[in-house]
Amino acid sequence: MQTETNDLPQSEQKLPTAEFKREMLGTLKPLRAFALSLSGRHDRADDLVQDTIMKAWAKQHMFEPGTNMRAWLFTILRNEFFSQMRKKGREVQDVDGLMAGSLASHPEQYGRMDMQDFRRALAELPDDQREALLLIGASGFSYEEAAEISDCAIGTVKSRVNRARVRMQELLSINGESDYGPDATSAPLVSRSFVR
């Protein structure tokens, strides 16, 4: 006699493989963005996402239907990232950025320069603040979801996000809305409309 999935207790239910796969693949883009923001390198981000998907696939029986697949995958990715960081503790770091700076090319647009400044400032944040800011600001998670992913209290996440935002404003020398976009010297050049 076959048992219907709905007759099983919640802890024993699992998504059909096709549905699990579809939900999992639907989170690849935000998962990769989160991995890239944590690792800072495209190749490492891709490896991190691949490791996450492999682990999630192997542990799909542990996923509880009706819960947030995206948060579950982000938690796996985050844990994998920190696990890898602990293993690579002996890796030589480019702390002062001299090596990275010598490899960088001069940006062609203001947006690229702003993004470069933003990434540099983001990298200077403590890991916990950067993670909280990215989960809330870039990945769109609620404070509750971010707290679950980070395995901490909601108040802790809110505090980390607030401190991260304040620190980013300091690092980027942002005092108000006028600090966004082109500076006073270049604004007339980029806002000028050319009539044919």
From TrEMBL:
Database matches in PANTHER family: RNA POLYMERASE ECF-TYPE SIGMA FACTO (PTHR43133), RNA POLYMERASE SIGMA FACTOR RFAY-RELATED (PTHR43133:SF25)
Membrane-crossing segments per the record: none
Domain RNA polymerase sigma factor 70 region 4 type: 116-168
Any one Gene Ontology BP term: DNA-templated transcription initiation
Pfam families: Sigma70_r2, Sigma70_r4_2
GO MF: DNA binding; sigma factor activity
InterPro entries in UniProt: RNA_pol_sigma-70-like (IPR039425), RNA_pol_sigma-70_dom (IPR014284), RNA_pol_sigma70_ECF_CS (IPR000838), RNA_pol_sigma70_r2 (IPR007627), RNA_pol_sigma70_r4_t2 (IPR013249), RNA_pol_sigma_r2 (IPR013325), RNA_pol_sigma_r3/r4-like (IPR013324), WH-like_DNA-bd_sf (IPR036388)
Domain RNA polymerase sigma-70 region: 29-90
Protein name: RNA polymerase sigma factor
Gene3D superfamilies noted in UniProt: 1.10.1740.10, Winged helix-like DNA-binding domain superfamily/Winged helix DNA-binding domain (1.10.10.10)
CDD domains for this protein: Sigma70_r4
Source lineage: Bacteria, Pseudomonadati, Pseudomonadota, Alphaproteobacteria, Hyphomicrobiales
Keywords: DNA-binding, Sigma factor, Transcription, Transcription regulation
Record-stated family: Belongs to the sigma-70 factor family. ECF subfamily.
